[in-house]
């Protein structure tokens, strides 16, 4: 209600300044400006649909236009009746939402590289303080790697999720009320929208209580537009706007202790988008990829097969190449509009997003909604952000007391600001974690099979054999392995800065990933062999 009155005053100020700038007889207080019929029609037209029908009865046909202050008083009188109608609408929408959720189909399994190795722990007997060391915090259970009382629990767990939803609304129009009801009922942290069809007249109607609104309206022509709603409790900022020809919006979610920042983007790519505009978008993507990145939107690429990253059209193939060059993975597999997969969800890190579901439409939109969770990783995400530019990462040692004190702080459950720690310290923590996993990450029982697979001479045969062995790993191990290899690949690709080639990384990290069964230590020749094989992986 307050937003509406504020917007009415803004219209009055616009009337004062724009329509008659030289008239000194106009009042200086917007509350004393007459609310003319054109002003009132614009006000009612821009209101949320739940208000518009009620406000229409306030029209004063034939009467002298009242002052803005008088209109505000009339407006407040309707608050009680409007509130009751909104309660009724929310109840109906709640029932509809429940039906939509029951019809939703799972598009992909939960994907998380860190939370996958965490299991719920029951009550246990108190343990000696010495048992809280890293090695005692890890155990095997039915073949799975489990963090039971790990001192790295703050560093290695995805302790929270950001609940998100995205949809192409095909014009927000009269869908604002339904959107607000769904957002409040489901308590989403982030809401992404394409094709809002908004312009400056929607400033009041677009707001949602409890959320910051970031929007980019299409300029100069009808349609298009993108928006992001982010809960007010999050510290976030919008980087420089960039080229207005690209209907894309980026917001950086700034995390606190133990968390890495996340870049969230929403994009609308029209079906007939010019290749030059695509190139501008590709440059924006390159700038944003240094952070953990989540990108959603309607990209209008029905000819792309995202299972195999192939496309029929030349322009689509260039888009796919950009996706691959930026290490992006597309997670939506369900068709989102009739028979086509148009609405996509990209991430640049394994396990960053999970719980992907597709189903239900907002209002009469012909696009299905996509719901997902952003898994707020920490240690691996921080290393992925800072590791590639850190010289000697995973090679240079740190003072023993530094790593020991940090592990003890994590042991005690204290809040530790990992983001303030040097990348070298984080790398030591990660190597220590990998070293203490029972049977190692690649599985000591699979040692001979890994070695046999890597002896294949044909590249195709070798890849097939490696996939077969990897398929025998527990799911938790496999997910963590994918994230780790993605991190190491990023570092090796930036060897000019990190001074760490694939060979260097294999020497520093390899012995922590694989060891023979029934062996506590490796002879030198076996260690060299393992290092060489891990380098090939």
UniProtKB/TrEMBL annotation:
Pfam families: Exo_endo_phos, RhoGAP
Domain Rho-GAP: 356-537
Membrane-spanning parts: none
PANTHER family found in the cross-reference section: T-CELL ACTIVATION RHO GTPASE ACTIVATING PROTEIN-RELATED (PTHR23179), T-CELL ACTIVATION RHO GTPASE-ACTIVATING PROTEIN (PTHR23179:SF26)
Protein name, per record: T-cell activation Rho GTPase-activating protein-like
Originating organism: Grus japonensis (Japanese crane)
